[in-house]
TrEMBL record:
Taxonomy, superkingdom: Bacteria
InterPro entries: SPW
Protein name per Swiss-Prot or TrEMBL: SPW repeat protein
Keywords: Membrane, Transmembrane, Transmembrane helix
């Protein structure tokens, strides 16, 4: 017969291991966590910065924000190098999209997407290169 206290201890130990593993992942993959947060920021930024009624930049932020956040979460849960390169390309798109989509006149949308794009692309490339370097060094 299993006592209630041993079941509580088992659950407590399992939660401790899970939390420890979660912190280990975040400490190794903090760039993916930051990109996930930036993706969420992109989704809410049209309302926060007041350009939600401007269809083109708002939809650009919403769609890319969701994709960046989902890719970041995917990289945190089951890392694949391609996820970093997807975010790098999406970041580059954010940087050039104000000119290609014609919303350079909306200062808040322009600078939001440029800055977020630079940070997302930079972190994704950094993470991909760190993995490449570790792979090369270990062979």
């Amino acid at each position: 017969m299993v006592s209630a206290s041993s079941e509580v201890h088992d659950v407590s130990a399992l939660m401790e291991v899970s939390m420890s593993n979660g912190w280990n992942v975040l400490s190794r993959q903090w760039q993916d966590a930051v990109n996930t947060v930036l993706g969420v920021w992109l989704v809410v930024s049209p309302w926060v910065l007041g350009y939600a009624t401007a269809t083109t930049p708002a939809w650009n932020a919403w769609v890319l924000g969701v994709v960046i956040a989902v890719t970041g979460i995917a990289a945190l849960t089951a890392f694949h190098r391609w996820e970093e390169w997807v975010n790098a390309v999406l970041g580059a798109w954010l940087v050039v999209s104000p000119w290609l989509l014609g919303f350079t006149g909306l200062t808040a949308a322009l600078w939001n997407q440029i800055v977020v794009g630079i940070v997302v692309a930079g972190l994704a490339i950094w993470r991909a290169m760190a993995i490449d370097g570790r792979t090369i060094a270990s062979t």
